[in-house]
Amino acid sequence: MYEQSIELFISETLIGEAQKNALEFVVHLRKNEMQFYRDKNGYWEDKLYWHISCNNEYVCFILINGYQDGHWVVWFEDGGSDCFADFPIDERMKKIAWANVDIFKGDCGGGQCEGLRKVIFGKEFESLYRTLMCFNNPDAETVECMKKLVEISKMTFAKNTH
User: Fold this and answer.
1) Which is more confidently placed, 35 or 113?
2) What is the C-alpha separation between 81 and 85, in angstroms, rounded?
3) Cα dihedral angle (91, 95, 96, 101), rounded to 10 degrees?
4) pTM of the predicted model, to two decimals?
5) Which H or E run includes 140?
């Protein structure tokens, strides 16, 4: 059975800048030899949700039309590494990353929730989700930052395989 590509879903569900930016990001992921897996289990069964990995380590997750029609969301994680801690990137990219840090703001169903404490590009954050950064309907400049995060992840996870 043929599985529809993420590119086709993007082309069919997003329009304008959202479509252009999402397709540009996916091209970058493919160029960097990321693996795509569409999750169709449990909560994600009827969603357009992909796990993106490199060398069996999650790099990011993409959701299309999940929270709002015409929008896409990308979450990044670091595979338990500190790859985003002190990596040298320019100040503008740092500010974009910091503005999209995924800080826990709710409760965990009545339990005590302690999020992660991480340094991201030289700045310490507390109460983070496992997905350290969340980019909601990113613009072109933000996609450039996300591309850099992919490259950093790829370098980190390539090192871990040797």
Assistant:
1) 35
2) 9
3) 140
4) 0.89
5) helix 140-159
